[in-house]
Amino acid sequence: MSTQSHYPIGQPNTPWGESERLAWRKSTTIKRSYQEEVVPKIQKLANQFIIEQYGALSYDSTRYPLFSIKSQGWDNSKPTILITGGVHGYETSGVHGALQFLAEHASHYQQYFNFIAAPCVSPWGYETINRWNPNALDPNRSFYANTPAEESAYLLKLVESIPGKVLMHIDLHETTDTDESEFRPALAARDGIAYQPGEIPDGFYTVGDTQNPQLDFQTAVIDAVKQVTHIAPADDNNEIIGSPVVAEGVILYDMKALGLCGGITDCEFGTTTEVYPDSPTVTAQECNNAQVAAVTGALNYLIEHQLKTR
């Protein structure tokens, strides 16, 4: 079954050219406001953190400034934690979960860690509720040298500026029903390949790094999130989204090889969260809470198993 049976842009077995990318871009619409929903929450943190603009997207540099949130009184003797959200702009709880953690919980953990966060890497995607940027590029497959994705390039430069080594990077994502109904068919159409239907996992899971799994750490995140929402079960093939389940709710990707945000540092501990917001049993706030639980569970693990042994 080909994508083009379902997707209205492009011709069967033919990758998109510029005209198809333009047609796709024209099909998008603004559905919510980054300036009204996200930026005020960032600015509200200015009394607790250093807020810096690390770039602005050329699509509309006034509308889409990019902000980082950094610990005041940065202490090079402390380990550094990187939090990213909204790499896929449509994944709402990644953005608001990161901001909720910073507003409500980071003060407790700053005695142990420096924090730097980029809570909304893709504000155009946030506004249009899209996985891609306006050029039909996925920022979360674009973290590599000389990347054409502005969102990815700016974040890579921000990471290069971080003093010292990042101990942990947590990248906050969602897996939604629209991944299967819209984004995967669009991807197949864009690349001129056949669309193979898949399944959307019902629940939270994490993606660790094939090269550095840290399964005890991943399990600590899962255990923390269990208190907030349900964990995705393995399918009949013992997989989640086509990857083997290596521990409850945990799969692995080769982060750097795939150009994923989770591979932008050489951190010792890294995880990508995947919240499931389309469950009839959860609310938007519970999705945000699940992201917060993932961050706090990860940090509690580091305090218990890393800092106390140093």
UniProtKB/TrEMBL annotation:
Alphabetical list of InterPro entries matching this protein: Peptidase_M14
GO biological process: proteolysis
GO molecular function annotations of the record: metallocarboxypeptidase activity; zinc ion binding
Gene3D superfamilies named among the record's database cross-references: Zn peptidases (3.40.630.10)
Domain Peptidase M14 per the UniProt entry, residue ranges: 30-310
Family: Belongs to the peptidase M14 family.
Name this polypeptide is given: Peptidase
Species lineage: Bacteria, Pseudomonadati, Pseudomonadota, Gammaproteobacteria, Vibrionales
